[in-house]
Amino acid sequence: MQITRELFDEVMVPNYAPSKIIPVKGKGSRVWDQQGNEFIDFAGGIAVNCLGHCHPSLVNALKEQGEKLWHLSNVMTNEPALRLAKKLTDATFAEKVYFANSGGEANEAALKLARRWAIDNYGEHKTQIISFNKSFHGRTFFTVTVGGQAAYSDGFGPKPGDIVHADFNDLASVEKLISDNTCAVMVEPLQGEGGIIPATADFIQGVRALCDKHNALLIFDEVQTGVGRTGDLYAYQGLGVTPDILTTAKALGGGFPIGAMLTTTEIAKHLKIGTHGSTYGGNPLACAVAEAVLDVVNTADTLKGVKAREQLFRTGLEGINSKYKVFSEVRGQGLLLGAVLNEQYKGRSREFLNASADNGLMSLIAGLDVIRFAPSLIISEDEIKEGLKRFEKAVAQVVNA
């Protein structure tokens, strides 16, 4: 059978529009397509491949677990799940962990838990959820409604109720909405899909204080910011604010599907037996790989290295911008960075994405105006420099077109 991009149009549901490139092999921060063309990966599978492609520790964990045990269901527990849960609780504020398969599922669990906690403790009236415009929390109907992008939730009929949206980094807009009927505020410490916008310290501390005042839970969606991406294991650790519930996925499995919801014993007790579940959640294969990811990422060397690499990216992007004058700013944190297009190039992020691919670089966008970079946390200095050279060629291609 010949595998071509045309086969996608023939056999796949048309909800994606993938590039014509079909990668077949990856090693570290380099990827090769069917024709043998090499790309440097500044995309990281959208902040997923935190240790690049085919990292030896992850490959070994998968091979070893693959010879032992694949699946049990949650009628029984398993050793990799328990080891991973212990490492996550040891490394964070959390005391309890729930495993799922994706960020959307982890967020679904967090939202259901918040509602259940509020109703059990305060009564049926306490169900309001506050989220933020331009936020993204997943694609289940509950999470996509909580997400602040109506384009993703419109057109599917009646939406889950009692969900409202404030403006990110605008504490007054939260104050207007929050009340004793609020059960939770869900926030990304750094908005990803919304344009790579970090929360300010004053804003996030103010949201924490408002939640405390109104007996509401603070949920941090760290699906994109977690597992070393910002230079802390989880972004909350660099903000001086502790959430009540935290969700993590993407980089947690380094490319193997897994998600988790982390919380305290007091809150967790409201998900009693039978109130929530997942067939594959806590799967031994996924948990074995995620444990290997955590062992590599949660070290001083890796986390310090993220901040050093951030500076290389910022310096390189500033150099490109001094020549071509296309960005108004570079924002973000750690290795989740967004180059924001200025007025002259507004709305043209996809042109830069396509030009990057033409020049052997995999990058991302975050909306129409931001080029997003989320490479491996351990990408080499040489690969950063080579990737930025290719990006400069891409910028020149768009500017001179």
TrEMBL record:
Subcellular compartments = Cytoplasm
Q: Per the UniProt entry, what are the Gene Ontology biological process annotations, in alphabetical order?
A: L-arginine biosynthetic process
Q: Where's it mainly located?
A: cytoplasm
Q: In which pathway does it act?
A: Amino-acid biosynthesis; L-arginine biosynthesis; N(2)-acetyl-L-ornithine from L-glutamate: step 4/4
UniProt binding sites for N(2)-acetyl-L-ornithine: 139, 278
SUPFAM superfamilies per record: PLP-dependent transferases
* Residues annotated for pyridoxal 5'-phosphate binding in this entry: 136, 221-224, 279
Q: List residues, modification N6-(pyridoxal phosphate)lysine.
A: 250
User: Remarks, anything else?
Assistant: May also have succinyldiaminopimelate aminotransferase activity, thus carrying out the corresponding step in lysine biosynthesis.
Q: What is this protein called?
A: Acetylornithine aminotransferase
Recorded source organism is Paraglaciecola arctica BSs20135
Gene that codes for this? argD
